[in-house]
Amino acid sequence: MLFVRFVEVLCNILIFAIVARALLSWFIRDPRNPVIIALDQVTEPILAPLRRVMPRMGMLDFTPLVAIFILYAIQWVVISYYRA
To answer: For the whole model, what pTM was predicted?
Structure first.
């Protein structure tokens, strides 16, 4: 159960970081901002591979949304596997 809880907390932290990064990208444009740097370091290993696979839709970047769906799916699989 410790593994399940770890995966659940890790996925929730990553989801929060992705949402925060997406929201802050609308308001804070300074790439030297320490908050932006920290969020980039945490989320870029997840978002970069998705960006290579997904094309951009004009000015919209849907990779954060896809990453959140993937993280929720990982949570669901791990929780349902260990509760069975």
So the answer is: 0.90
